[in-house]
Amino acid sequence: MAAAERAIVIGGGIGGLTAAAALRLRGARVTVLERAPSLEPVGAAISLSPNALRALDVIGLGDDIRALSAWQGDGGLRTPSGRWLARAEAAAAAERFGGPLVLLHRATLVDRLAGLLPSGAVRTGTPARLTDPGVPGDLRRPARVETPDGELEADLVVAADGIRSAVRGALFPGHPGTVHSGFTTWRAVIRLPGVAFCSHETWGRGRIWGTHPLKDGRVYAYAAAVAPAGERAPDDERAELLRRYGDWHSPVPEVLAAVRPEDVLRHDVRHIAEPLPAFHRGRVALVGDAAHAMPPTLGQGGNQAIEDAITLAFPRPGMPPSAVDPVADGLPGYTAVRLPRTMAVSRRAVRVARLNLMTGRVGPAVRDTALAALSKAAPSLFLRGFDGVADWRPPGGPSGADGDGSGAPRMLAADHGRRGPEEKTP
Question: Residue 43, by phi and psi: left (phi above 0), alpha (psi -120 to 50) or beta?
């Protein structure tokens, strides 16, 4: 990417900020437009698996985030009574996939990503509307984005505007968009002093629960249950969690005793069931939930957004750049790489949701018996669900970056951090 080229990123979440940092590393002048008044993310924690951490190596953040890993010892799957169905060791997971699984607060990751951008590159409180996707090959026809402060032109627009993406609707008005996945989720991050537990996820009948430690001493808890779209608790969501999970094994009751109603976030889960025809049109590329919203049952939504961003900025080696329009001409390659990858991960997440949220009495009982038996016969069973997902490696990287032996080029964050007010943005 030539240094003079302009990129606009619509959305200041994890995918958008990763794309902005990566594109800036490529030499683009990047502006991030975020509708919210600040970059404080909605949500609790995010799980980053080795595939995303290798992608973050490319922009210099991988080791910084790995240092936040808190999973030590064993963990795995349990029943509501506390019986273990399958176990996994943190060391075994790291060995199998070439790195740890890191759970951290979303705000921490957003802050680290924003720190790679120059002052003024992120404009909060700035809603944006795509007015023209532009025409590849015609340098007189850039993409255009309307903001309250006027219209901006760009050689590339990255649409990272989330699950309700207005840009997706503008590019593909005939696409049905997202569908309800059939379940709802709750999330909370709390302090839980004096309570010892192993990192775990628990599967019941039509319900799941997870409790995991964070590096800063807090605990991330989440739950999911089969529920119709739009359903909400008649009193508050903490009370709803007590009704659904109050008699489950420790530390679930301790978590529910410590959590306040205002700590609990609840969201219906939606996903893109019908693949988009492409992840680009004109000079616009979709990343993250805007392109491939998926259920959280594999913990891959944010991970795939990070993969998108790095792949967009650093295409596969050996793909010669166009001499006429290197940005827009490279977007078909981005779709060719990312669409099949993300839809395969999404379909796997849907299948996992059907398994761990089974209802009735017979199905869950058969599932649990099979999981326990298979886990004894093949102790690595719990980790196999991430084969082909967590072992992904970035397709390319910045020229001259030192490799680490994993195929992931590394750059020092200090080499491309904030440059000061002299650096202008479009």
Answer: left
Report how far residue 109's alpha carbon sits from residue 96's, in angstroms, rounded to the nearest whole number: 24
Can you give the pLDDT at residue 386?
A: 83
Q: Which of 346, 185, 157 is nearest to 268 (CA)?
A: 185
* Amino acid identity at 84: W
Instruction: State pLDDT tens for residues 278-337.
Output: 999 999 999 999 999 999 999 999 999 999 999 999 876 544 445 455 566 689 999 999
Contacts of 337 (CB under 8 A, 6+ apart): 311, 315, 316, 395
**Integer CA distances (angstroms), 345 to 44, 182, 273, in order:** 22, 18, 12
Q: What pLDDT shows up at residue 317?
A: 52
Residues 6+ apart with CB under 8 A from 250: 82, 195, 197
Q: Which residues pair with 10 in a beta bridge?
A: 33, 159
d(CA 108, CA 100): 18
Residue 299: left if φ>0, alpha if ψ -120 to 50, beta else—which one?
A: left
Give the bridge partners for 222, in sequence order.
Answer: 187, 210
**Local confidence band at 90 (pLDDT 50, 70, 90 cut-offs):** confident
In one-letter notation, the amino acid at residue 173 is: P
Q: How far apart are CA 386 and CA 340, in angstroms?
A: 17
**Token couple for 385:** 């669900």
Cβ neighbours of residue 114 closer than 8 Å, sequence gap 6 or more: 12, 17, 39, 122
Q: In the structure encoding, which two tokens stand for residue 103, read together?
A: 């759970």
Q: Token pair of 135, please?
A: 């025409």
Here the tokens at position 292 are 């491939």
* pLDDT tens column, 53-72: 999 999 999 999 999 887 76
Residue type, 184: T
